Amino acid sequence: MSIRIDDRQTTSSRQHVHAASSFKKPHRGVWGWVATVCAAVIILGGIALWFIDEPLRAYAERQLNSHIAGYTFRIGALDFHPIGLSLDLENVTVLQDAHPEPPLAHLAEWHASIHWEALLSGRLVSDHIIDRPVIHFTRPQAAREARDAPAQTKSWQEALFAIYPLQINELSIKDGDVTYLENAASNPIRLTNIHVLAENIRNVRSKPLQYPSRVQVEAVVFGGGRIKIDGHADFLAEPSMGVDADISLQDINLADLLPLTAQRQIHLTQGSLTTTGHVEFAPAAQEVRLASLNLHDVKADFVHAARTTQKEQATAQQVSRAATKAANHPALLLRIDQGKVERSEFGFVNQATNPAYRLFISGMELELENWSNQLSEGTARVRLDGMLMGTGATKITGAFRPEVESPDFDFSVRIVKTQVTSLNQLLRAYRGIDAAGGFFSLFSEVSVKNGTVKGYLKPLFKDVTAYDPQQDQGKGILNQIYEKTINALADILKNTPREEVATKSDLSGTVENPQASTWELVLTLFQNAFFDAVLPGLEGKVRHER
Q1: Prior bond of 103 cis (ω within 30°)
Q2: What pLDDT does 4 receive?
Q3: For the chain, which residues score pLDDT lower than 70?
Q4: Are 218 and 245 within 8 A, CB to CB?
Q5: What pLDDT shows up at residue 306?
Q6: What residue ranges in 222-327 does DSSP mark as E strands?
């Protein structure tokens, strides 16, 4: 059997294969050409964007500098991303023209982009992410910033809108760092690891509510403590934004505040603060409610000097006016549910006398309950235990009612067996005398209501002596003989054994300044009682012993 192949079919098959082969070659050539064109477009587009980025950077820099007076902005680089319509600013430096050194701020990267979720709802707004911002300012810079801030708020908004013409809806700050320097000799005050998240600023994802925007802030304070704010805000409220948030401070080292407190003559050298509470600040209401306030191991002195007298008086007047304004203010609530001060020491140093002296209470344990500026919040109660001058057991209790027209409170004081020698610097400063031994005690009860003061003050002195060989060994021999002789004669002339000597002072009367704050009146009563009753009594006893 033979097989015959048709030459015409073979020829036709070969022609078909050749035709197919001829078609594939042009096909591969077209896609190669398309790929080449795309690559060229990408390269040319990248080159074009590179040339566009620099003009955009210069434009953004000009916008910032022209809109915000008093500051100079420098932008290291700008990257525009046309696909996502986003913008990156890199190495942004801000200088305050009045005080250019150190630079006020440096931002490693600032990313702005469209908020795509809001876009689906028909709202065109932006998200901003700021990475590693570093803010460093001094006292002169802070003073200038505070003076210029109200006028600059609108300018900042206009400048940012000119750079990226979409209103900010979400803002995120990552790993921020803020340093404040009071003067060249002081330690810096620093907050690190600052993280801020503010969402829904333009209220595009919900109906208008009282506080529609979520706000979270966390930071490390002074290297060890922590601050946390968690709540909501209304950034569009008029005439100012509103905030409603929980706040907590944990293990804040108070010694780092010395550069600030020293400006008010308060030398705060140690201590720690922990507190939790809630803050609401809005045009219609302001509330600061602390559930707990704890201070421990505090050591602080109020230092008075002749050169600071006028400044102290001005500060006292400001505090008094602020306290008067806050008392029963219809839109302001200040409250501390529970407050504690533990293992602390507070003192008063007077450098305006010769010699200078220091009065203090050590080992202080203080409990504060239900303190408020509002009458409706009820009565505040205070209990203090400590050691006056480190030797006299001290107990103070008080009930303080929010003021209506004048201070309204009751308190009692009990100080037992303070060594008189611990008061020698004070005695030398005011009476030119000192004591070698003896004890001083004090009992007092005071009530202030409706502008009237009722109460008493009873100081007691026991076994006060004026000579001691160890204390007076540095004195001249004639002075020693004189004091020893006087002590001996005083013992001979006494017909009765030594016993406690007490005098009672009536503190009843009217409040001279009904507008004074409660704490101002308490300090005035203590000051007058001590210098009008205690010191003269000590002086009489010491001089009698001589």
Answers
A1: no
A2: 44
A3: 1-51, 120-122, 148-157, 205-209, 312, 315-331, 403-405, 467-505, 511-546
A4: no
A5: 82
A6: 225-234, 242-253, 266-281, 286-304
Q: What is the pLDDT of residue 24?
A: 47
> Which pairs from 202-205 meet CB under 8 Å and 24+ separation?
202/118, 202/123, 202/125, 202/167, 202/168, 202/169, 202/235, 202/236, 203/236, 204/115, 204/118, 204/121, 204/123, 204/125, 204/169, 205/117, 205/118, 205/121
Amino acid at 227: I
Cβ-count burial of 371 within 10 angstroms (0-12 exposed, 13-18 middle, 19+ buried)? buried
- The residue behind tokens 């305050």 is 96
For 136-161, the pLDDT digits (tens) are 988 888 887 777 665 555 566 677 77
For residue 478 the two structure tokens come to 């004639």
Residue with tokens 């979409």: 166
| Contact indicator for 328, 374 with CB cutoff of 8 Å | yes
Give the pLDDT confidence score for residue 30 in this predicted structure. Answer: 58
According to DSSP, residue 224 is labeled: T
Rg (alpha carbons) of the chain, rounded to whole number: 38
pLDDT score for 528 = 61
Contacts of 105 (CB under 8 A, 6+ apart): 92, 93, 94, 133, 134, 135, 136
Identify the CA nearest to 461 among candidates 521, 418, 399: 418
Q: Sort strands 408-419 and 501-502 into parallel, antiparallel or unpaired.
A: unpaired
Confidence at residue 418, expressed as pLDDT on a 0 to 100 scale:
92
Question: Rounded CA gap, 295 and 457, in Å?
Answer: 31
* Model pLDDT, residue 517: 56
Distance CA 132, CA 129 (A): 10
Contacts of 191 (CB under 8 A, 6+ apart): 176, 177, 178, 179, 219, 220, 221, 222, 227
pTM value is 0.75
- The encoded tokens of residue 15 equal 């022609």
pLDDT tens readout for residues 355-364: 999 999 999 9
What is the reported pLDDT for 543?
Answer: 58
The helix (run of H) or strand (run of E) holding residue 485 is helix 477-493
Q: What residues does 396 pair with on adjacent strands?
A: 384, 413
Handedness of CA 154, 155, 157, 158 (dihedral sign): positive
CB 271 within 8 A of CB 300: yes
